[in-house]
Amino acid sequence: MSFASRYLSGDHVVVWSELEKLGNSVRLPHFVEDASEVARLTMLRVLRNVLIIEEELSCCGYRFNASTLRPAESIIRLPNEHDLEALYQIEQEMGSLPLSISAFFSVLGEIDLSQHFEQFVQWLDRENGSPYSELEVLGEYGPLVISSPSFMRERAISGKGEICLPIMPDESARAFYSGDYYYIWIPNLHVDARIGSSHPTSETFVAYLRQSFQHGGFHGMPLDGMSNSWKFPTMPNIDRISKYLLPI
User: Fold this and answer.
1) Which among 125, 115, 130, 119 has a CA at the least distance from the CA of 221?
2) Where would I find the beta strands (DSSP E) of 98-225?
3) Cβ density class 194-233: b for 16+ within 10 Å, e for less
4) What is the 8-class DSSP label of residue 141?
5) Torsion of CA 70, 71, 74, 77, to 10 degrees
6) pLDDT (tens digit, 9 = 90+) per residue, 212-244?
7) How many whole angstroms separate alpha carbon 170 and alpha carbon 215?
8) Taking CA 99 as the corner, what is the angle to CA 95 and CA 104, rounded to the nearest 5 degrees?
């Protein structure tokens, strides 16, 4: 069976693991078309999941920060002509993107599940005794936010033969504290990118999405500064939303 056929049959995690192990060989003629189809199928599932999250979180009373922008935006912005041109220019001028990233930006242009600032109760307010519910602190649990290709191209950082692209704000920035971005490094001929670090043990982009969907669109709050230790929302509604989402 092809990788894509196995993926459709439910072998999601194993298929991505095997494609990652191919390294640069995934671009060989007898792999690349199949691997690209797996990436496309995955990102179509990502789109469906985010649409469900948007509807379900709204029903729970969660307010999205995207609505505060001028003009107000949807939490999902599908790729427009400017984004697709930026994606093309990144690959032509800076280096190849991994297949997962190319597929994501071909299907989705941008995601912003961050919480409305007026609803979010920050840490200092909680320390000073302000009452809050878990709904009002969901913004600290790493709501899924992915930058647009246009933004990445504008904020690219060059150095040591590689280019860093800011693919998403970190947990602090998403919660309106002082923060930074998670980056990916290019050129990268692999099927997937490592987020925040090029070290082989760091989390891949698809694994990041997978963990987010396992918790209703929230990747988690890092504990003790350890990237492999996370605290997740405990709201029953978040668990319910997670059960509606397709595995990737």
Assistant:
1) 115
2) 110-112, 145-146, 157-159, 162-169, 181-186, 221-223
3) bbbeeeeebbbbbbbbbbbbbbbbbbbbbeeeeeeebebb
4) S
5) -100
6) 999 999 999 888 655 568 999 999 999 999 999
7) 17
8) 105
> Helices 29-59 and 12-21, interaxial angle, to 10°?
140
Residue 66 has which token pair?
């995207």
The pTM (predicted TM-score) of the whole model is: 0.93
- Secondary structure class of 226 (helix, strand, coil): strand
* C-alpha–C-alpha distance, residues 159 and 41, integer Å: 33
Cis bond leading into 236, ω under 30°?
A: no
Q: d(Cα 205, Cα 184) in Å, to the nearest integer?
A: 9
Distance CA 60, CA 239 (A): 12
